[in-house]
Backbone:
């Protein structure tokens, strides 16, 4: 949506922006945008080429800017309840 707004985007995304029919608005048009809209940074490419050795398969945001990583789906679901849904660990 933002990419399609171009210079009209002022930093605030509004409901009317979501309805703006541009080739880059996948809310109003089916399929993919006509061109790429972003590229990964060098650090992301390096991380994909050289991932750390870990058992973690899942992650959830803790709400403080950090993440909790889990090796199993059961542990991940407990972490989701704890950090995202206000449940107990």
Residues:
């Amino acid at each position: 949506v933002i990419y399609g707004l171009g210079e009209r985007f002022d930093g605030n995304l509004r409901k009317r922006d979501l309805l703006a029919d541009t080739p880059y608005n996948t809310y109003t048009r089916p399929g993919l945008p006509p061109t790429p809209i972003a590229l990964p940074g060098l650090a992301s490419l390096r991380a994909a080429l050289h991932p750390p050795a870990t058992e973690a398969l899942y992650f959830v945001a803790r709400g403080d800017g950090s993440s909790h990583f889990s090796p199993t789906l059961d542990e991940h679901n407990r972490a989701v309840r704890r950090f995202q849904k206000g449940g107990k660990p």
